[in-house]
Structure to design on (447 residues):
């Protein structure tokens, strides 16, 4: 949703054409949205090698993408108050980022004031309504949520929690479930890292007595669909509980009868906002339980290998067997790990020489996609310090089955090499998802 204006970030001419090597590297990484590389560059580049303005912009962006909203607000406030003239055309993007991070830190009233001010200024300047609409929409959404702030207020003490992991294996594409309750009504809940929001159907929302807010949210998946904001007074998962928990009401509409019937059978979805409250979730597949430690585990890796995307997803950075970078959308709501068209285009000759032709059907919010694919055998994947081999993995060519034409990369915007699903995660006894230090670590089996 935010990508439209985040891509407005244009480095000032004075910071690029006259920059030294370090500044040129910073500028290139920022303009190409290479946030993992930018974070590494910040760690190794001496402070005096780049202008204070450029470094602060880099810090603000990495704090935003690596889930440090509190510090992002501090840096962004300083940028806008101390360097407004120098920011020039970047001012709008930095102000918008500040609004987003204020909302992420439960400062909804301040976020509303900021985006409403931006909307008013742009409108007064005669900016086209198609460009200002996003600010008006955000102001409406955040105004509604501000009434219930603070959201996700915990009702449980800070201690270790263990929650039984329920594996729904009625089909070959099973899911991870947990027992819980919404507004004191018992329900199984779907644990879905691929969901940027908590999601519930309209019937479930009525059954659980959610409060409708009268605010819509455009949602992108295979296609586009609209969700409707609602509030649950309480949410309980195991021994943990929160009050004022927002959900999006979505009834899956793909145009495919079977896919829609399966969608109606899904329990309410617990997405990343609740996981963010937990900070760390250990998926212990060996003992079939979720472990939420009171104190998050220090990062055992050299750096964060996980970031949040503009579409509220989680992107994992890893490498292939040759050490080349790969990026995966982390999606426990999907069972199969899939390599996407971006990866196919870079390995086309290899795939067509060794893969078995097949067809791939993907159903999601707003539609269904049927494309030509290949199946590869014995393909290795690395997660943190763990490596596992899948017996088979599908490669989506992005080429339509019937017309032979490339399909539009609506799903994940074509920016990831693949989606990482349960079939890969379950190859490890335990997987640690840490949203405090932003890393995913897979604990390999003991020899």
């Amino acid at each position: 949703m935010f990508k439209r204006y985040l891509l407005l970030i244009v480095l000032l001419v004075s910071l690029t054409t006259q920059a030294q090597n370090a500044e040129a590297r910073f500028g290139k990484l920022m303009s190409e949205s290479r946030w993992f590389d930018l974070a590494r560059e910040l760690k190794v580049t001496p402070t005096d090698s780049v202008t204070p303005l450029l470094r602060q912009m880099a810090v603000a962006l990495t704090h935003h993408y690596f889930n440090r909203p509190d510090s992002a607000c501090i840096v962004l406030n300083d940028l806008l108050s101390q360097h407004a003239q120098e920011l020039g055309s970047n001012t709008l993007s930095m102000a918008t980022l500040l609004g987003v991070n204020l909302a992420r830190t439960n400062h909804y009233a301040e976020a509303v004031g900021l985006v409403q001010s931006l909307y008013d200024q742009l409108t007064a300047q005669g900016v086209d309504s198609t460009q200002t609409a996003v600010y008006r929409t955000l102001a409406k959404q955040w105004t509604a949520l501000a009434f219930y702030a603070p959201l996700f207020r915990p009702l449980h003490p800070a201690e270790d929690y263990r929650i039984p992991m329920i594996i729904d294996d009625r089909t070959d594409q099973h899911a991870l479930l947990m027992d819980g309750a919404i507004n004191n009504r018992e329900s199984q809940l779907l644990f879905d890292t691929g969901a940027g929001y908590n999601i519930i159907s309209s019937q479930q929302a009525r059954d659980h007595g959610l409060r409708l807010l009268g605010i819509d949210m455009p949602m992108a998946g295979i296609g586009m669909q609209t969700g409707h904001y609602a509030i649950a007074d309480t949410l309980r998962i195991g021994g943990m509980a929160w009050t004022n928990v927002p959900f999006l009401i979505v009834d899956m509409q793909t145009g495919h009868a079977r896919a829609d019937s399966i969608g109606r059978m899904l329990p309410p979805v617990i997405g990343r906002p609740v996981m963010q409250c937990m900070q760390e979730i250990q998926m212990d597949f060996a003992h079939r339980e979720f472990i939420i430690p009171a104190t998050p585990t220090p990062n055992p890796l050299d750096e964060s290998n996980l970031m949040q995307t503009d579409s509220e997803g989680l992107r994992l950075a890893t490498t292939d067997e040759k050490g080349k970078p790969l990026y995966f959308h982390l999606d426990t709501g999907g069972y199969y790990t899939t390599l996407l068209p971006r990866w196919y285009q870079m390995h086309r000759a290899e795939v067509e020489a060794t893969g078995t032709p097949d067809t791939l059907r993907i159903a999601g919010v707003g539609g269904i996609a049927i494309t030509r694919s290949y199946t590869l055998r014995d393909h290795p994947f690395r997660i943190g310090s763990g490596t596992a081999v899948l017996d088979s993995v599908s490669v989506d060519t992005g080429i339509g089955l019937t017309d032979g034409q490339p399909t539009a990369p609506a799903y994940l915007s074509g920016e990831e090499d693949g989606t990482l699903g349960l079939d890969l995660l379950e190859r490890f006894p335990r997987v640690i998802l840490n949203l405090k230090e932003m890393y995913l670590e897979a604990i390999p089996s003991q020899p």
The mean pLDDT is 89.
